[in-house]
Amino acid sequence: MALTRRQLFGLSGGVVSGVGLAACGVALTAPGGSTGAVLASRVPLPEPFEVDLPQPDILRPRNGKASVTVRRKGIEILPGRTTEIVGYDGTFPGPTIEATKGEPLALTVNNSHSGRIVNHLHGGVVPPEHDGYPTDFVEPGSSRVYRYPLEQRGATLWYHDHAMDLTGPNVYAGMAGAFLLRDPAEEDLGLPERELTLVLTDRSFGEDAELEYPVTEGVIEYRYHAGMLGDVMLVNGAPWPRTDVDAARYRLRILNACNARRLELALEGEDSKDADLTQIGTDLGVLTAPHRRRSITLAPAERADVVVDFGTSSVGSTLTLVNRLDDGAMGQVMRFDVARRAKDDSRVPDRLSTIERIDPDSVVTTRDFRLSLGTSQDSSGQRRAGTLPRDVGRQRPPLRAGGRPRQAAPGHGRAVALHDRRPPPGPRAPRRLPGRAGRLAGVEGHDRCRALLPRRGARPHRGLPRALCPPLPQPRARGPDDDGRLLRGVNLRSF
């Protein structure tokens, strides 16, 4: 059953799980550690690699100011079909904002659609009043100026809606975009100037190519309580795209903006051999040193900064970016076609940055956080994750965050430095840290999003996660015109 457009974009908030937080669900129903379940599209889907990769518009501040407007617009996602989205400046994804470290930004967000919104700079170190608290609504027809100091390390961030009970459907409808914080200090590293930002999402489509999410009688269907997995892989809003590249090094800034799908990304050549992925950065900036990898695992909301040398491939060859946590169509992401030779003076130096090491002995307070589904307290009075006191974040850093959740749990909090609880590996034995999707011991870096895998834990050294696994929003919609009725369908085109 479909809702009106007004109901969708004004009242749809409480009916879907939030991006990057869907792991608070009930069970693993999908391969590869993803939570949630697949919703099949009801429209013919294109074959992979028939659509060119689009690049979002670039938005650069002028005199420290920039502005975006959230509005509804019909765009082409599936070839020859129109899909209605709600996005920043009416695009999906929104424009890529490029800012510079040390140059404060005043970002004006205008709300030109019928629902409440809140803007959040994911990964940003910002004052609390500008962090996009879920109930700091920007009402329809109004605007809000968000002030970002941008004194942190250069990194691949992203911005998205963060409204209470509306985050999931608002992001699903298109309210998300990349935010590149550039650090002038990186200019001396000689990294590639050829650069592609890749925003990865999965979506499902109805009979008229509308975005679709399952709700029955106003309630999320039980099998989707842990999030929804689409059956169309989108890169920058295009299904399974392809793009021409020079036979040269490229810097790829990759964002997993899926609702619940984990990705293990690898580059496969025509001979089925993997190409090297040289990871140079994570969520909050470049690593101390580059690390060559065959694949990179990203939880929802997580980012990776990667250099790929297409110069090792012959002109006319192709390399396919694949997702090894899925098979079939969802095991494909996009294709790179090596089109021409080109001069390339770029390099990847052995040393990228210096990161201050944090001494575990300096921790003055230790707290244990157990990740599990439940109410605010169990029979012993122990608090469950996601129901922490509001003032905990003002206390000194904790040492441990762990527990044994039944499914992967992406954590969204402040910057942390992960410490392996086991003895460090030898130089020939890199391995994954416990509780961290895709991190290798011996490579230093800071992260904001972490995936705690079942029956494992991690030890953050800096900052307290604001919500390791917040509870799912209630399936009741609240909005400026809420009359108390439950939503009776989610069909994004009909909203």
Keywords:
disordered N terminus, mainly beta, 495 residues, Immunoglobulin-like, 7-stranded mixed beta sheet, single chain, 30 strands, 32% strand, 2 helices, 6-stranded mixed beta sheet
List the helices and strands and how they pair.
Elements (H helix, E strand, L loop, with lengths): L4 H7 L25 E2 L19 E2 L5 E11 L7 E6 L7 E5 L4 E7 L7 E4 L20 E6 L6 E7 L5 H7 L2 E7 L12 E9 L11 E2 L2 E2 L7 E2 L2 E4 L2 E2 L2 E6 L1 E8 L6 E7 L4 E2 L1 E6 L2 E9 L2 E3 L4 E7 L8 E6 L8 E10 L67 E8 L1 E2 L27 E6 L6 E2 L35
Q: How many β-strands, per DSSP?
A: 30
Average of per-residue pLDDT values: 77
Unreliable stretches (pLDDT < 50, length at least 5) are: 1-29, 375-409, 419-443, 454-495
Coarse structural class: mainly beta
Strand order of the largest sheet: 16-15-11-18-24-21-22
What does this structure look like?
Mean pLDDT is 77; it is low at 1-29, 375-409, 419-443 and 454-495. Among the domains are: 5-187 and 475-494, Immunoglobulin-like (Sandwich); 195-205 and 225-341, Cupredoxins -  blue copper proteins (Immunoglobulin-like), CATH 2.60.40. 3% of the residues lie in helices and 32% in strands. It starts with a helix and ends in a 35-residue tail after the last strand. By secondary structure, the protein is an all-beta fold. A seven-stranded mixed beta sheet has the order 16-15-11-18-24-21-22, with no helix packed on it. Strands 17, 19, 20, 23, 25 and 26 form a six-stranded mixed beta sheet that branches. It has a five-stranded mixed beta sheet with strand order 2-5-10-9-7, with helices on one face.
